[in-house]
Queue: 2 jobs
Job 1
Amino acid sequence: MGPLEGLAYGFSIALLPSNLFACFIGVLVGTIVGVLPGIGPVGAMALLLPSTFAMHPATALIMLAGIYYGAMYGGSTTSILVNVPGEAGSVVTLLDGYQMTKNGRAGAALTIAAVGSFFAGTVGVVGIMLAAGWLADVAIRFGPPEYFAITLGGILLLSRLSGGSILNAFVMVALGLALGTVGMDSISALRRFTFGSVQLAQGIELVPVIMGVYGVAEVLLLAEEGIAKTQIASVKLRQLLPTPEEWRRSTMPVARGSVVGFLTGLVPGPAAVLSTFISYTVEKRMSKTPEKFGTGMIEGVAGPEAANNGATAGAMVPLLSLGIPFSPATAILLGALVVHGLQPGPLMISQRPEVFWGFVASMYIGNLMLLILNLPLVGVFVTVLRLPQHVLATLVLLLCLVGAFSLSNSFLDLWVLAIFGVFGYALRKLRVDPSPMVVALVLGPMMEKTLRQALFLTRGSVVDLVARPLSATILILAAAALFGPPLVRLLRGRRIAMPIVP
Amino acid sequence: MLARAVPLVLLVDAGVYLTLALRLPFGAAARPGAGFYPVIVAVFALVVALAGTASAFRGVPGAAAEAVELDAASRRRVVISVVALVAFCLVLPWVGYPAAAFAFVTVLLRYLGGRWTTALLTGALSAAGSYGLFAMLLDVPLPRGLW
């Protein structure tokens, strides 16, 4: 099935009433969680995962992905109007977005952010159509050594890009990998680290861990503040239209941001966040008046807002074509597909075209829904912020608890949620990113299985394992990304230091 | 204190994990056993946890940043939230979901700063609403308690 034929088939799936409804609920919930500072898209996706168990896999994927990209739209609203980013991908937007509000141009900033996000989302979907199919064709030839190299390389790269110190990232990776070994060994069926618990033999569920470190931890941070009221700038419908000059200045930043975002999404790491920083830097460098950035430049809103939406689309490519999630959000999407007995990977596009193409087409529709929802209804979404934070915190916590229990009706999941909630809170206080742990928890079992299979194949030769052309290329690239920057810094330091040394 | 406590706990965990991993069948490189990969992970965990702990105690850049001190009221609210979370997990099998959810929301809202009337009303509505959604609509067998 070619891309256009596939897309037409996808629209016939995505336009089914049940899928349209799921898409609408997904983008609506996504916009609301994007607006609310307490709970991010990952927590919301984890929370709603149990409600998708009775759905068709395509419907489940459509709804959960809608939350993910919907949150990128919603997050910009609070950044621009309240100077509070609804989620991490909108932090950069507040630099110029809130200044535009102070300058009386809030409506223009919101419109450009929404239109830019829509454009980037659409570009991203075209990117998925082209890249995922091509990558899947290539990946059919991959064996265990290549998959091992991809998972190992992905984890190494994620450690480099997750922000903060690499040592902390490695500690998180080690913890995630160790947690991934709990439960029954997939090859010998031996129980490992279960301490006699039957429930632990199933392994540590990903979703309660995610709900804990993203949902409960955020709620504990909200609880610190107690009763807090938010000051919200009001925007009237007629103020939403940007001037022709603002449209003109936003065109290229949106186009550049879309491409930067999509490409960043392909790389392991917090793509939605990282892409906004890259886009902002690019726009500042290309500007004739870089000193004005931070004072309400429309380019500083247009580029990053397009970039974070492009990144959410880009992040789908490794998931759909290789079956490997490189971020917590795509890990949940993988979890949703696995629950339905689907294993994303190179064969999914040909074997389950209704899931792949239905999902791709739904992203077009979802982006259109978001554009329609976000502009006229911006005032409605912002009123969500008037909900007192202590009420919000309590209700989100209750939803996390009941959501975690409903995954497999297990009290163990409740305890996992509570323990990782407190642990996630401690990590936030120490400014340590938990994403490497979450991704390592997902990729760990995959890495172990492929490592052991590859060693069987190569009769225990590690050299044969890493010397295959593709494995070697991936590992060299990952090593270059990991050790390149410190090495360059070291060499530059020496070069500078040389004249001083006699 | 938190910046030193967390890596120290992780270091102890890594040591325990290595001890347990070494008890599993290791196999050989050509036929790796169930303990092969956990031992590799454990060694990696021990090395990075050691480096993390050393950095935290020496206070070098790269160690986890020291948490910003909270005032007494904020600390109290966080502790109450954690206690409520743990209490919910403990009592749920015995008192059932509706009662546990009602008590959880009411007590937590009250101590986070809400009025008793608001807390009681929100507690009743949220317990009933979430029970209706999950137990009745989504067929989740939420615990009903000993009665």
Job 2
Amino acid sequence: MRIQTLLYGFILFSIPQLVRAQDNDLLNKLNDSMSVNDQKSYVTGTFKATHIINMQTVEGPAKGAMIFLIQHRFGTLNSGSYNFFGLDNATLRLGFDYGICDRLTVGVGRSSYLKTYDGYLKYKLLRQTDGSGSVPVTMSVLGAINYYTLNIPAEPYVNGMYRASYATQLLIARKFNRNLSLQIAPTWLHYNLTPDSKDKNEVFGLGMGGRMKVTRRSSIDAEYDYLPSGQIVTNKVSNSFSLGWDIETGGHVFQLVLSNSQSMVESQYFGQTTGKWGNGDIYFGFNLSRTFDLKKKNEKKGNP
Amino acid sequence: MKKIIAMLCLAVAGHSAAYSQLYMTRTGFIGFYSKTSFEDIKAENNQVYAVIDAGKKNIAFAVLLKGFVFTKELMQEHFNENYVESDKYPKATFSGAYTGDVQLSRDGVYPVRVRGNLTLHNVTRTIEEQATLEVKGSKLLGKAEFNIKPEDFQISIPSVVRDKIAKEVTVHVQIDCSITK
């Protein structure tokens, strides 16, 4: 009887001890509960800016935000000391991107090169998500119209119809890790007028590019726009290759750029790049983007 | 047999205070607010996990940093990518204990003092703050407001934007926990 009593006592005393040991760490309980209810989340910040260098990225401004973009290219580095190695000359593109919703961007731009206007819509079809069994890439589709307005007195028949060209790109990007993002972009260009009948009106190419972060707020970018030969034959067209260095501060992204393309719109940097890196036809320049929030100001005052 | 019953009574009496009485939520609220003359920053999260053990007066929180919603999307991106690095350190957690008399059988608001370890950005610091616990039927509602310094958690802020982020960020916590079996 005595032994039995002791045994009962022992069991009764030890039960609460066990219970205590089990839930000693409430935090583990929460962490378990959290991992059970784990949700997929969208990968953000595949690229810092809307352009890798010349090619657009999958990114666009958030709903109600506007990005003002200044793209600037000096003359070629090989233009000699008389032109101060290109710095005497400049081409400029000013652009505005607006986020109609988080997935849809509308943009307009004006370049000094051939006095070109451009307009586009960009829609995010897919968004990369975290975790296994998730969406591996972010995919956007871009439809752009480029329209140059430079007066050509010798060719007065080049009217509005002939001056337009169109670009359709499928932008596919993946953020592999916090530092590395890569993008490929199958591209279809349509020129209403080509320099010669031997040149194709429908031109296909492949854009490739990426960024590698070197610090938390800066990255090295590279871009190669490949144009299979035999499509544009009258001009000696080179593939466009560009290198950039991004620096991000707050709402600004500043990019220093080296490229053999002078223009910054799709149908021109793909189809009208004549410079060659080997010859030193390298345009130094920069892209500067600034994000503005156009959403109602009173939303910000809701905090206690 | 009497002895057994006596033992049983003793065991229950001796340990009842140590028994777990868990209250939990998965939809708690944490918001943080930074005010400077340049910019007001506001971020809120309604998916806070919290558990209170009213028996042992322990409390714990866990929250996914990606769940904080900012008024400006770009701020949210910078918060995750550059400041708290939520890809590396996805969670912020707190685990500690509170002192103060909370009578679970009587509805009312009870002031308590909470002390424990706050982990954010892979840095753990001990904090001690005033809070309230409200007993409301089978619910236990917690509320607290305190300040933390980003620099305490090795969150580096570049000098160009340092003036736009408050030296001390106000944190609001509100949890409505329900009793669990």
